[in-house]
Amino acid sequence: MQDKWSKYEYNPINKKFTVDQGREGHDHEWAENFANALNFKSIVEPLIIKDILNPLTKKKRNPTQKTIEELHQWIAVGTLLGTLLRTLLGALLGTLLGALFGTLLGTLLGALFGTLLGTLFGALLGALLGALLGTLLGTLFGALFGALFGRC
Prior knowledge:
Elements: E1 7-11, E2 16-21, H1 28-37, H2 40-43, H3 65-117, H4 119-150
Antiparallel strand pairs: 1-2
């Protein structure tokens, strides 16, 4: 059934008309004239047909003051988000790693001193060293990760 009809393609942007499957006896020239005469803006209202421009040959424009201000706003937003993320990640990782290593070293040193010097003195010294090392390592890791993520 479909072999009885001629098949055409038409691109309204570059006005290229091609005959895909032409049947003998059909007026292909009339079809091409009909397609070229169509006003596609009346068929598709929001269709805006413009010439295709090569971006490499386009004239360079100087940026306007509004464009510069918008760029500064984007930079400010990026800086703010970067600072916020660096601070949060640095504090979070610093606290977690500081607490982990502080507790681990505190327990290890507490057990070591506990066996050597006695249970009470060892536990007290272990807790004190654990808290001290946890705070120290937390601050150290916070500054380290803040500096590392600050360069992203």
